[in-house]
Amino acid sequence: MIQFYAPDIASVPVLPESDSRHAVKVLRMTEGDTLQVIDGRGHVYTCRLVEAHPKHASVEITDCREQPLPWSQQLTVAVAPTKHMDRMEWLVEKMTEIGVNRIIPLLCERSERRELKVDRLEKIAVSAMKQSLKAHLPVIDTLTPLKKVTALMPDACRIVGYCDPSVPRRDLSHIYTPHRDTMILIGPEGDFTPAEVSLMLEAGIQPATFGDNRLRTETAALYALSACHVIDSLNTPEI
After folding, report:
1. What residues form DSSP beta bridges with 51?
2. What is the DSSP string of 110-173?
3. Is the CB of residue 53 less than 8 Å from the CB of residue 17?
4. 169: how many CB neighbours lie within 10 A of its CB?
5. How many Cβ atoms sit within 10 Å of the Cβ of residue 223?
6. Closest CA to 27 of 60, 49, 59
7. Beta bridge partners of 209
8. Three-class SS state of 179
9. Could you read off the pLDDT tens digit of each residue along the chain, which spans 239 residues?
10. Coil, helix or strand for 221?
11. Which of 13, 37, 101, 184 shows its CA 20 to 30 Å from the CA of 19?
């Protein structure tokens, strides 16, 4: 199944140029063909192609249904962007496929990347959303200072992973509460500074370890997010 993305489809029944080109030029769709369009906010539209224009294909909505997320809570990952953008782009793609509500690029003292083009990451997230047959597009924030992020989601399960063994840490599985709103914080390649760790601990964020291996930034973020989903699945009552 192929999904098309048009965030304003309910009010403007026209596909964006890239999706129009894909439908008309690549898939050779013609007037009268049926296609599925998502708006990134959980709505799935069944549409009929009215005008097969390669730049602005117009459609008629014949049906709309809600597609709820497979998880019930808010899952947020705050992660310092990697020095090489291809690794950050890969991470956004995989987190979108696995399932995340919000991605916050973290600005830390040791961040090697202090500028970020969010529009590029959003395009990658859209592609991953369509490929994984989801209807919800994760929110991607602009680069945000760590101090500001520590004030977010105060009632959630907030977990930070870092490498410094001098501060006691518990395994992620002993901290995460299944199906509860959660924020995971992951630092840059050079890790959080001691001052930043103290800041997070004072804010009530719980220090976690993801095992004995030292993980790259993007690996740690994906591992933690995946672990939350796995723990959820093991703690879901059978119907």
Report:
1. 58
2. T-S-----HHHHHHHHHHHHHHTT--BPPEEPPPEEHHHHTTS-TTSEEEEE-S-TTS--EEHH
3. no
4. 20
5. 19
6. 49
7. 171
8. coil
9. 789 999 999 999 999 999 999 999 999 999 999 999 999 999 999 999 999 999 999 999 999 999 999 999 999 999 999 999 999 999 999 999 999 999 999 999 999 888 898 999 999 999 999 999 999 999 999 999 999 999 999 999 999 998 777 788 899 999 999 999 999 999 998 889 999 999 999 999 999 998 878 889 999 999 999 999 999 999 876 65
10. helix
11. 101
**Cβ atoms within 10 A of the Cβ of 163, count?**
13
Classify residue 143 as exposed, middle or buried by CB count within 10 Å of its CB (0-12, 13-18, 19+).
middle
Report pTM. 0.93
Please state the length of the chain: 239
Beta pairing partners, 80: none
